[in-house]
Write a structure and sequence with these properties.
215 residues, mainly beta, 3-stranded antiparallel β-sheet, 2 helices, 51% strand, globular
């Protein structure tokens, strides 16, 4: 028999217990050269499975345009981290800044770089929590992450996984840019357990980052 103190994910054949976060990496490390503001252009290239679930997850994770299929363009910000484990060689995404930048109707976003795994929107009306994370640290080949989220929007409980991989490049004028690919998957949630073996939708996107033009 399984001990009652064991994660329930042991009982559901590949599911993940959203009530038992297991995040060993403090945050996603980005190259220190990314510190500061960037313009993000994000375009969905395909949606497989339940498009309603895909759009709902996209909206709760910050999607701010009229439709998931509408190209997005917004500002984001990378900040230096005070995490002593990385010797300040990396930057981290200011998740609160990006969320507010994408969704102009949001009244408040609570997020702190010292507690990067939880974001509360509009006084807790919605909560996004990272429950699993793996990362690919920056190198000449690229960098990226794989995060599984618990999304609470009373009375609904959802789960989504976002995987991104980036590489640094130059545009035709010699300006530094960053190009990326994103995969977002959604899952059914039953009694706090996400059925991660069988995604209900898979959304693929391409991302392009450029520095804001100085007027």
């Amino acid at each position: 028999s399984v001990s009652s103190s064991a994660p329930r994910s042991l009982d559901v054949g590949g599911g993940v217990d959203l009530y038992v976060p297991q995040v060993s990496v403090p945050d996603v490390p980005y190259p220190s050269s990314l510190e500061g503001l960037w313009v993000i252009e994000r375009v969905v290239t395909s949606i497989e499975g339940d498009s309603f679930q895909a759009e709902t997850a996209w909206r709760t994770l910050g999607g701010g345009s009229s439709s998931i299929r509408t190209p997005e363009k917004f500002l984001t910000n990378y900040i230096k981290t005070n995490d002593n484990n990385n010797n300040n060689n990396y930057a981290v995404l200011d998740r609160g800044y990006e969320y507010k930048s994408r969704k102009d109707r949001v009244k408040s976003v609570q997020w702190e770089s010292t507690q990067p795994n939880v974001m509360r929107i509009d006084g807790g009306r919605s909560t996004i929590a990272v429950v699993r994370r793996s990362v690919e640290p920056p190198s000449d080949q690229g960098f990226g992450f794989n995060e599984l989220y618990s999304i609470t929007e009373e009375p609904f409980e959802r789960s989504a996984r976002v995987q991104r991989r980036y590489r640094r490049a130059y545009d035709e004028n010699g300006n530094r840019i960053v190009e990326g690919l994103e995969l977002m998957k959604t899952y059914r949630v039953l009694d706090g357990v996400a059925g991660t073996e069988f995604p209900t939708s898979t959304t693929k996107s391409i991302i392009r980052m450029t520095r804001p033009q100085v007027e």
